[in-house]
Amino acid sequence: MLVEVLFWVFASILAISALAMITVRNPVHSALLLVLCFFTSAAIWLLLEAEFLAVVLILVYVGAVMVLFLFVVMMLDINIEEVRARVTRYALFGGIVAGVVVFEIVSVVWTRSLGLDVTTGAQPQPANYSNTAELGKLLYTDYVYPFELAAVLLLIAIVAAISLTMRKRAGLKQQNVAAQVAVRREDRVRIVKVAAERPETTTPEKGA
Amino acid sequence: MIPLNWLLILSGVLFAISVAGMFINRKNLILLLMCVELLLLAVNFNFVAFSRYLNDINGQIFVFFVLTVAAAESAIGLAILVVLFRERRSINVEDLSTLKG
């Protein structure tokens, strides 16, 4: 009973914060409401006994992605009023599309012909069940190759993001390491033949 | 316990809200990216729910990969956004018409 009540509380917070996210004027408020959405979703995933994914959702999304969003929103000096002008022009159309989407999904889900009994809950896992251990076993055996590919994908994302946003400043003195390594002896050292000179015969007089 | 169809309807509602958000905020590129994140969250809800009710943990592995790709996507998207803002001083979608798309 408690689980159902918690689900309803979290589901209503999630729906309200998502609705507020798409309607508030300030992008910073939008980002913060999206953080609330992710937190509430993580709570619902905890109710579904998907503990590892709930923690990952908070760590990755709230900790990394949304912080990145907030950084960008605050870094860009956007004229909010200009961007949000004529916002209601498409609100009606968007509402209609959203209503159609909800209708379609609900009508599919409500037919109860998914091959499983959708109206009852899953049995709770035993107390010694570890979601993280199960996921880890599968991730490092069956899915080890996609896992490595995901790591490469993240590396590519890092390289792409840095190379896109790196700014070349004029007048900045930098090392050119490749040129430094490729330098040869002939570029730097010049051996000059100097004709030998005869030492002076007259020594300077001291104390004269 | 929570019935499966409650979860599916919740994810459907979330999906619809983010689709509506794309229509409402169609001028602000940052909000469009945020709506994409919400869309992916709604899809992940389905994966988690079905994985739980079919007792098949492969669905949660898939959520893991979706999260990875979404993080990479938002990082690159925001980088492109920053470069765009530096060039144009604007992130209004209607100003981005160089390609005449």
Question: How would you describe what is shown here?
Answer:
The complex is a heterodimer of chains A (208) and B (101). Chain A has 9 helices and no strands. Chain A has helices at 2-23, 27-47, 51-75, 80-84, 91-110, 131-139, 144-165, 177-181, 185-188. Chain A is elongated. The mean pLDDT of chain A is 85. Chain B has helices spanning 4-24, 29-53, 58-88. In chain B, 56% of the residues are buried. Chains A and B meet through helix 1, helix 2, helix 3, helix 4 and helix 5 of A and helix 1, helix 2 and helix 3 of B.
Protein topology:
The complex is a heterodimer of chains A (208) and B (101).
Chain A lengths: L1 H22 L3 H21 L3 H25 L4 H5 L6 H20 L20 H9 L4 H22 L11 H5 L3 H4 L20
Chain B lengths: L3 H21 L4 H25 L4 H31 L13
Helix pairs in contact in B: 1-2, 2-3
Q: Tags for this entry?
A:
heterodimer; A: 208 residues; mainly alpha; 64% helix; 0% strand; B: 101 residues; 76% helix
